[in-house]
Automatic annotation (TrEMBL):
GO terms for cellular component: plasma membrane. It comes from Billgrantia endophytica. This is Probable membrane transporter protein. It comes from the Bacteria. The lineage of its organism: Bacteria, Pseudomonadati, Pseudomonadota, Gammaproteobacteria, Oceanospirillales. Its main location: membrane.
Length: 268
């Protein structure tokens, strides 16, 4: 692999970690569009672009989600009884959704990704938060919610925070605990999603030689460690920079990246 690709993956991992630490936002919205563009330049066949980007992004979330989980657990912010009931649904929903994703053509998958990211960006721009209006459902209700959260997360390669935090907040979980619990939920999402994309791409022809299913190992091995290193820096900067303004800038960037991804797969 040419040096330029190594540097690109390192830079992407560093930026994703920085944004995650600074804004508390997972990297799928950044990684998937950028990886798609890099894969186009590397000559990956069109039909595999979105799937390889999604699978690689899910795998890259594993180490960062583990680090985030440990940090929130040390601060006592994880509601483990919620994690216990939501995880079975998360695992099933995420894993099965990767099989659905494998059946969706690249262009349509990119359009779904873009629509979700634009909705997320609008929520950030408007600073919309659900009002706490009910209590947590019973174990079956929590598991069912986990299935839906996991399913959507697998289709857009996110750790679930964009869905888990609003759900828990709506159920009268205070925001600090909602964020901490969401961080814990991000690990099973990333693990199940990575495994699913690996299995679905295992026997697919035309993938890069360094791919393990729909997970491109060079990108994973370069992005993941650097994202872990830069996340603490982002967390420190969060206390010095205007985070509210940066969130709006980030939301606009999400829209641009999502639109660029659709354009890329439509013209590749």
């Amino acid at each position: 692999m040419e040096l330029v690709w190594w540097l690109s993956y390192l830079a992407l991992g560093g930026f994703v970690g920085l944004m995650a630490g600074l804004l508390g936002i997972g990297g799928g919205g950044i990684m998937v569009p950028v990886l798609t563009s890099l894969f186009v330049l590397q000559g990956v066949p069109h039909e595999h672009l979105a799937h390889l980007a999604l699978g690689t992004s899910m795998a890259a979330i594993v180490p960062s989600s583990l680090s985030s989980l440990r940090s929130h657990h040390r601060h006592g912010a994880v509601r483990w009884h919620v994690v216990r009931f939501i995880t079975p649904g998360i695992l099933v929903g995420t894993f099965l959704a990767t099989f659905v994703a494998a059946l969706i053509p690249t262009r349509e998958l990119a359009i779904f990704f873009a629509c979700f990211m634009m909705l997320m960006a609008l929520q950030m721009l408007a600073n919309l938060r659900p009002r706490p209006s009910r209590g947590l459902p019973g174990p079956l209700g929590i598991t069912a919610a986990g299935t839906g959260i996991g399913g959507i997360s697998a289709l857009v390669a996110i750790g679930g925070g964009a869905l888990t935090v609003p759900f828990l907040t709506w159920c009268n979980i205070k925001v600090q605990h909602a964020i901490g619990t969401s961080a814990a939920v991000g690990l099973p999402i990333a693990l199940a999603g990575s495994l699913g994309y690996l299995i679905n791409g295992w026997s697919v022809s035309g993938l890069p030689s360094a791919a393990l299913g729909y997970v491109y190992l060079p990108a994973l091995l370069l992005m993941a460690p650097l994202s872990i290193l830069t996340a603490p820096l982002g967390a420190r900067l969060a206390h010095r920079l205007p985070v509210a303004t940066l969130k709006r800038v980030f939301a606009v960037m999400l829209v641009i990246l999502a639109a660029q991804m659709v354009y890329t797969v439509s013209t590749a």
